[in-house]
Design goal:
- By secondary structure, this protein is an alpha/beta fold.
- It is 46% helix and 8% strand.
- It has 15 helices and 7 strands.
- β4 and β5 form a beta hairpin.
- α3 packs across α15 and α5 crosses α14.
- The longest helix is centred in the first third of the chain and has 30 residues.
- The N and C termini lie far apart (77 Å).
């Protein structure tokens, strides 16, 4: 407002103070409530702006600024190792073979120095150089001829039974099909680029229907692999679980994972919590230790729990660096010390240190139930710091479990790594066009990830699945 309007309003308020002071008091109190509400809102928005992938669960893609300007917010400390390959690691140097596929001999007829004619008697040694290369890409066509025999005394005919994979007049073989599944589901090459690759290498134009012609039997043959996978996961003393949003038909659905260092089980669902867990038919029978990110549905399971301390460390990082809360810095230090040296003190000692830090947190940030805003329904939200303190209080056994049980890891990184390629697929393709395609992707990726973890050839594993003999079952 301008000065004239301000002066007019001032005169009106002065007159109201003389005639009706109580209404002015009510007006001031209302304004104070609004100022308090707006102050809290501004603080919330400022906190959101200060959050990034290093102090919250936000992905790195949401970090603003050029990569060069962004501070390295990794929670990992220095390893102390020198750059490059470490002592004792297995190298991958190209080595000479004893039986090359082809040998080309290079000889001289005339000495380039003296001009004298040379013969085999002048040879005093040889230099061998081996070149590793691939043959020119070419599709090999095999024609199957089935002789047709007439039945004496009948118009009917018979022939040799059709060989599996060779019953149509023209069709692609299983090795080419395995390559298509390998490139689409493992390398995540989009359809247009895959079609271009096949045309450039083999001179053949393929369509989405051609790829699906091989993905469908691969998916069907992997049903027994999936059943065996569930049984093997139930035997694991420690499992990791996580979930992430995926787009199917333009709508956000959920991709779940249950995994360990050797096995991966992916499942598409339109539920995030309990319903999806029951659909997967693993965790509702599991009795080992489950590592997860504190999703409430997991705590209803009849098993031990371990929380991902990397998530907690990022949240503590926000309150220790941005908000300068002393208790958060101390809790970070405790968790890092426990990770680096779990035998630094006794079990009782770790619990006592943890309890002292929580007591300090409660003293720094005592919780008073907020008054619900007028005309606003629902329960009033607790401050973020009090939510974090309550989580550390409620789940202290699950947070500290990695100290006392060596097989329990510090983080849930295993599950996050197993979901990462699905996020890459979403960035490349944007969405799944059908539920059928999404479900096929989950099962085939489960098989591919398991093969990758166990050091086998992924292409060979896919080829075996296409032929009805999948690995690991």
């Amino acid at each position: 407002m301008d000065l004239q309007q301000r002066e007019q309003l001032r005169q009106q308020l002065l007159e109201q103070c003389r005639t009706d002071p109580e209404s002015v008091v009510d007006l001031v109190l209302d304004l104070m409530d609004k100022v308090e509400m707006l102050t809290k809102r501004v603080e919330q928005l400022e906190d959101q702006l200060k959050k990034n992938s290093g102090n919250s669960s936000k992905p790195p893609s949401t970090d603003k600024g050029s990569p060069a300007k962004l501070k390295n917010r990794s929670l990992r400390g220095k390893s102390g190792k020198k750059p490059g390959g470490q002592k004792g690691r297995r190298g991958a140097t190209l080595e000479r073979v004893d039986n090359p596929d082809e040998t080309i001999r290079h000889s001289l007829d005339v000495c380039p120095v003296t001009g004298r004619k040379l013969s085999d008697d002048d040879v005093v040694g040889e230099i061998r150089c081996q070149v590793f290369d691939i043959p020119e890409p070419k599709m090999r066509v095999t024609e199957h001829v089935y002789l047709v025999y007439g039945i004496p005394g009948s118009s009917k005919t018979v022939h040799y039974p059709f060989v599996d994979g060779a019953s149509a007049p023209v069709q692609y073989g299983s090795r080419f099909g395995a390559l298509l599944v390998y490139l689409s589901d493992f390398q995540l090459i989009p359809m247009a680029r895959l079609a271009k690759l096949c045309f450039d290498l083999y001179g053949r134009e393929i369509s989405a229907a051609t790829i699906e012609r091989f993905r469908k039997p691969c998916f069907e043959h992997l049903e027994k692999f999936e059943e065996q996978l569930k049984k093997d996961l139930l035997k694991s003393p420690v499992l990791h679980a996580d979930e992430t949003g995926v787009r199917i038909l333009g709508k956000t659905e959920w991709l779940h994972v249950i995994s360990n260092a050797d096995l991966t089980y992916l499942w598409m669902s339109d539920h995030r919590g309990r319903a999806a867990i029951e659909e997967m038919q693993v965790l509702n029978f599991y009795t080992g230790t489950l590592i997860h990110d504190c999703l409430a549905s997991y705590f209803a399971l009849d098993c031990n729990h371990g929380l991902c301390n990397a998530h907690l460390m990022r949240e503590l990082n926000f309150f220790s660096e941005v908000k300068e809360h002393r208790w958060a810095a101390r809790m970070q230090k405790l968790l890092i010390n426990a990770l680096n040296n779990p035998t630094l003190t006794s079990e009782l000692g770790w619990r006592q240190r943890y309890a002292r830090i929580l007591a300090e947190a409660h003293a720094e940030h005592p919780y008073a139930p907020p008054v619900r805003e007028k005309k606003k329904r629902g329960r009033a939200a607790k401050p973020a710091v009090n939510n974090l303190i309550a989580r550390f209080e409620k789940h202290k056994e699950d947070i500290l479990r990695f100290i006392f049980e060596p097989q329990v890891p510090f983080t849930n990184n295993q599950a996050e790594r197993d979901l990462r390629m699905a996020k890459v697929q979403q960035k490349i393709s944007g969405t799944f066009r059908t539920w059928k395609g999404a479900i096929r992707f989950a099962r085939i990726r489960s098989y591919i990830s398991t093969a990758q973890k166990q050091g086998g050839s992924i292409y060979q594993a896919i080829h075996q699945a296409l032929n009805g003999c999948p690995m690991f079952c």
